[in-house]
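SAMPLE LOG
Freezer: B-3
Tube label: C17
Construct: single chain, 185 aa
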Amino acid sequence: MKTFSQFIAEAYDKDVMGSSQIRRTGEGGRIGAERKKTAPERRRMKAVGGGKMEPAKEYKPRKDIGQQRQASTRVQQPEKERGSAAAAQKAAALEARKKAARERAAAKKGGGSASAASKPKAREVEKQASQLLAKKKKATVSPDYKPQKASGYSRDERRKIKRAGQRLVRDIQKGVDKPASHYKP
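STRUCTURE (predicted):
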């Protein structure tokens, strides 16, 4: 019977384990497997003419395939010094409250009434609060909206049809007597 250490030595063969790490590189020195969709999976369609559509052709491969990008280009770098804006805001609010308290104490010492001078009116506070709480209305899309269906005609075909229509209108406006067969496609 084998000891545990012998069993482990047989199970973990360095030569096999070193070469068996599965790392598929894509063509062109890509890092990782290619994740490109196949033709039936592609959603973007293109008009090929004659009222027919087919999936868009292969996309061009990127120029920087196989190169590691620096973290500074991928991750947003900090623009300001550390420390949250919320902490700074809290400190400013606390300072404002302290200042107001000092003013009230000074007014009380002087014999005047601090409440009338420094405290805002209830109506003003209410108006300010309602302004803050007022929700902005979201722009809603009409339920009757339907996106235009793809015609299936290529750009040149669409232009040809459009210009034929424009010619027809121009001829009608001029009052040129041409047979109806002339306007048939």
